[in-house]
Amino acid sequence: MKKILLTAFAAATVTVASAQNSAVNSAILNHKNGVLDKAQTDIDKAIQHDKTKDKAKTWFYRGVIYQDMIGNPIYGKLANENTPMVVLESFDKTVALDGKDGEFGKLVPERRQMLYGQVLNQAVEFHNNQEWDKAIEKYELASKVDPTDTTAVMYAAYASTAKQDYPQAIKFYDKLIEIGHKTEDVYKNKVQLQQAIEASDDAVMSTLSAGLKEHPNSVYLMQEELKYYLKNDRGDEAMAKLENAIKADSKNASLYAVLGNLQERKNNLEGATASYKKAIEIDPNNFDAYYNLGVLEYNKGSEVNNKAAKMDYATYQKKGKALEAQAKKHYQDSLPYFLKALEVQPNDQATMSTLVKVYTRLGNKAEADKYSKKLNQ
């Protein structure tokens, strides 16, 4: 009698398990036939039952069914804000149960990549509509789907900046650096955000130092670092650092351009001029050197003009015209440098704006108007 009861119990167990496996199979069949609402109902039942809730197959198809509802023209309304998270959870559980090389685990990477694209598209749509919080949320989810991809993290930083949440943007730039995306712009943007929130000098200089290790020829990073050296009365240290760098790389035009900038800040205008010209000698297309040489000459003209403007009438009658001619000579001398700088960087707004001023000083209204129009295009 006991033997019969045990057999009957075993049969009942098989029947129950078979029924639940049938729910999984029914979900798969309905999915294959494109009936996603019925597939969802079936898989939701299977995911709750003790006999199928710990099977990789159940979790994998749960992810597939929910994923294929996203953007579906008929069943897309069944998806909601949490659907991508359900999909990601399902695929993570699949790998946890099956391993990355299991029957279903090995199918997950392709599906995750598809999910990444879906979530990123949602994020971009929110971004374009300037719904920053929703965009950032989706960018963060996309980053969870593919932790090695940098696009979502970068755009999350852009969205946070647009939202004016600068501390959050800095965290995203830190994450980019952490995952190996160490471009010059990442460090540049982080520095500018740190400056915007008035971070400590030590914090900014730490970022600059890290950036220069990755990009030792970055003029921007070098110049910003020099500002902080000078601000903290470390000008001699900055000069020594630059001179050592030049000894190690004497053909580096950027180093001479930065040296000229530092010499200019220390009011060594003769030395600055020589350094800028050395930079041009090494690199005939060094924008910073041309522009800064132009500024040096322009400023000399302005100083002479200011002297003339402060003269009393009698003194001006004697010396004013000569000073104005001297100033005009400096403005004329600045012109070739600015024109060459614009040739190197044809769209540079600062150079065009300066050319308007130079031509105005020289009384050349036609050229001043030409560059003024370019500025407004």
UniProtKB/TrEMBL annotation:
Q: Does the keyword Repeat apply?
A: yes
Q: Which SMART domains match?
A: TPR
Transmembrane ranges?
none
Stretch forming the signal peptide: 1-19
TPR repeat residue intervals: 253-286
Q: Which UniProt keywords apply?
A: Repeat, Signal, TPR repeat
Q: Which InterPro entries match?
A: TPR-like_helical_dom_sf, TPR_rpt, Ycf3
Q: Which SUPFAM superfamilies match?
A: TPR-like (SSF48452)
Report if keyword Signal is assigned.
yes
Source organism, top-level taxon = Bacteria
Q: PANTHER family per the record?
A: TETRATRICOPEPTIDE REPEAT PROTEIN 6, UDP-N-ACETYLGLUCOSAMINE--PEPTIDE N-ACETYLGLUCOSAMINYLTRANSFERASE SPINDLY-RELATED
Q: What is this protein called?
A: Tetratricopeptide repeat protein
Lineage, highest ranks first: Bacteria, Pseudomonadati, Bacteroidota, Cytophagia, Cytophagales
